[in-house]
Amino acid sequence: xxxxxxxxxxxxxxxxxxxxxxxxxxxxxxxxxxxxxxxxxxxxxxxxxxxxxxxxxxxxxxxxxxxxxxxxxxxxxxxxxxxxxxxxxxxxxxxxxxxxxxxxxxxxxxxxxxxxxxxxxxxxxxxxxxxxxxxxxxxxxxxxxxxxxxxxxxxxxxxxxxxxxxxxxxxxxxxxxxxxxxxxxxxxxxxxxxxxxxxxxxxxxxxxxxxxxxxxxxxxxxxxxxxxxxxxxxxxxxxxxxxxxxxxxxxxxxxxxxxxxxxxxxxxxxxxxxxxxxxxxxxxxxxxxxxxxxxxxxxxxxxxxxxxxxxxxxxxxxxxxxxxxxxxxxxxxxxxxxxxxxxxxxxxxxxxxxxxxxxxxxxxxxxxxxxxxxxxxxxxxxxxxxxxxxxxxxxxxxxx
Length: 400
Ligand SMILES: Cc1ncc(COP(=O)(O)O)c(C=O)c1O
What we know:
- This protein folds into two domains: about 10-55 and about 295-395, Aspartate Aminotransferase, domain 1; about 60-290, 3-Layer(aba) Sandwich (Aspartate Aminotransferase, domain 2), CATH 3.40.640.10.
- Helix content is about 40%, strand content about 20%.
- The protein has 14 helices and 16 strands.
- It has helices at about 10-20, 60-75, 90-105, 115-125, 140-150, 160-170, 195-205, 225-230, 265, 270, 280-295, 295-315, 335-350, 380-395, and strands at about 30-35, 40, 45-50, 105-110, 130-135, 150-155, 175-180, 185, 190, 205-210, 240, 250-255, 330-335, 350-355, 355, 365-370.
- Helix 2 (about 60-75) runs antiparallel to helix 11 (about 280-295).
- The model has no long low-confidence stretch (mean pLDDT about 95).
- Pyridoxal-5'-phosphate (PLP) binds near residues 114, 115 and 141.
């Protein structure tokens, strides 16, 4: 018998080698208590959260919590059904209406996760004979959507407008073309030149899908994302997003003005063949989305936090993923996995949680400490965070 697990041996060995150094497992942290969007208790210690994607700090918003509690009491703990059978409650419709209002678009479809939104939309609209032209650094859910639909995949170099144009021109005449882009790329926290890329895509007859998972709520005048900030939101055919970041709960969605969009509810397998979100979840999402529309003050503060952290880390001598802060994600580039894990643990011991990211999730084989800021981090907390980076960096030899 061939052990089907043998393909995991290299990863098992890498993990064992790392843990033998005595380092805490960076992928197995337990939060014992969560006090607020910015503070939790981990290993019995107060820990500042700087790796949760809770950009707008909505998880403890009193209105959001009250909406969830009411829905839980009035509609029960779950729908036990698919959206196309018994799983559409008034709350799911209200959530889709909130999304239509938020994006000023005609249609919205709520999925059980953002992963499933990409999986479902991409695989359903781009099939076997269609071409998907995508940034090589696209999220796993985008790649998995391409694979599920069995479309022809044509990757292009990250954020390279000329490379996108060249690939588009090579697609056979008459073939269906979908360009898939992200507003913010979550590993390095850099944004896409959507304006130019969408223009090139349209000039070459492609439809465009933009995943705004890491920009919703924060980037753009009304928090609609990078497409809004760059003035091209009306040229995007499909915006995909998630409730698991700025919205502060779980779920995913796609919004669009395409006149035939509603047919997707019948043909999109990751929408049809899975249970819908619990009523309490869609109630929290709808309340949060409506509040995000009027959160200009929080957006401003989050930009200040991002600039402050970026400048401070740079001053300490860390190498960062972007020259300027472009989003709420600041990536600190580590020399290798061992150094990254040691630094991650030293930060945790200081009382700071960040994400350790490593290949294959990261571009160019990089090990990263990814910091995601929250609009509710105070100026003092950002100061504390910089102090912890200074201490951990010196203790591990990452900076002098
Ligand atoms: C760009 C991007 N798209 C989609 C997703 C999936 O979101 P969810 O957590 O809702 O499945 C993520 C999650 O990390 C993401 O980073």
